[in-house]
Amino acid sequence: xKTQFQGAIIVLSAAMALTTSMTASAQSAGVWxxxxxVNQITPKVDSGDMSAPALPRTKAxxxxxxxxxIAVSYMFTDHISAEFHLGIPYTHELDGAGSINGxxxxxxxxxxxxxxxxxxxxxxxxxxxxxxVGLGLTYARxxxxxxxxxxxxxxxxxxxxxxxxxxxxxFALTPQIGITYAINxxxxxxxxxxKTYLKTTTHFSxxxxxxxxxxxxxxxxxxxxxx
Length: 227
Description:
Layout: H1 2-26, E1 32-42, E2 46-47, E3 58-62, E4 65-75, E5 80-87, E6 90-98, E7 105-112, E8 115-121, E9 129-147, H2 149-155, E10 165-167, E11 170-182, E12 187-195, E13 199-204, E14 209-213, E15 217-226
Antiparallel strand pairs: 1-4, 1-15, 2-14, 3-6, 4-5, 5-8, 6-7, 7-9, 8-9, 9-11, 10-13, 11-12, 12-15, 13-14
């Protein structure tokens, strides 16, 4: 019995050593990783007033959306990595706010915010949990803006033509905090929170403009694989 117990301890110790070695290799310098998951973007809107002609304090709000994302990363060292995020476009609903609160949907807009992060990963490569921080450069691209009947009513200057609008695409900085969990030497789970400091301007076909600070907060969860 004693011999069997000792043998089991030796086998277990060898297995743990092998797992630790493989995990360390998977999270070390020179390793590529690919992850896929979901990301929810929630704009924290601070809307300016629509320019004249419009009711005083005519503002807008922007709703959240959740979509699939993919990201690829590369470890330059055991602690420094770069990560590129991309996904399918998010569809955001624009609602009336301020003096036009209650008019409902003003329109919809798609956003596509590819982001390149430079990251610092804490603890050692063999750690099961590795917190990290990052700073990213985001290009917030807006497209497929579609106005509603409510928008036409709000901006109507006597024309029967439906009101359209465009939103300026912008570069913005995106701080990031996150943590990875090593499922095994190849697979991992990732949870991250970001905030993008983004200010843009909406232009209406009727001549009005509206400045908006969006500052969206995003929460993502993904499963990844080390190569």
